[in-house]
Automatic annotation (TrEMBL):
Species assigned in the record: Actinacidiphila polyblastidii
Pfam families, A to Z: GerE, Response_reg
The HTH luxR-type domain, residue ranges: 151-216
Record flagged with keyword Transcription: yes
Name of the protein this chain belongs to: Response regulator transcription factor
Amino acid sequence: MTIRVLLADDQDLLRHGFKMIIDAQPDMAAVGEAANGVQAIAQAAALRPDVVLMDVRMPGTNGIEATRHIAAHLPEVKVLILTTFDVDEYAFAGLHAGASGFLLKNARTEELIAGIRTVAAGDAILAPSTTRRLLDTYAGTFHAAGGGAPPKDVLAPLTQREREVFTEMTAGRTNQEIADRLVLSETTVKTHVARVLAKLRLRDRIQAVIFAYENGLTPPNR
């Protein structure tokens, strides 16, 4: 199957560069381009791509608002945020709005391609250290502001094993790493992960981490 990608960025040269990289892959195709958030929303609705590469800062409707709209109205379309972490304080907002992950614009070609494939497969980009740094920054802000005590039954729908898997997930570990730590098969871990997400009504691992931080279940800088 070909992964259909929509490119949303206000810089023509960047869009052209991403298009060349994507079209060079045997399992991908760039099916459309957008220079702002309004165009990204319209193109996503018209083309129904598998993945939208979404810039955060664009004129008019920005990438965060466009992501929120796409996630709410086109849940089958996955959004992968592109950002410059050191200067873009809105990257977390993009994840919170419904993106399945984010990459830095200076990511290596292989990282970009792997990220697109990961998101298209229904998973979320969570492993890179920059993701942990971003989430830890948010967590510190949340806890400093007195995020409030989480409901005692917030994980009530989960079994004990699912709670263990949830804890490992929110530490940013892969299925294989979870399997090794809990002495389970990777297939069994995948089943538990799917059940955890379904029971907590979460879309993916990114939302699981956000859920954990917002409910005070994961201490910052762990």
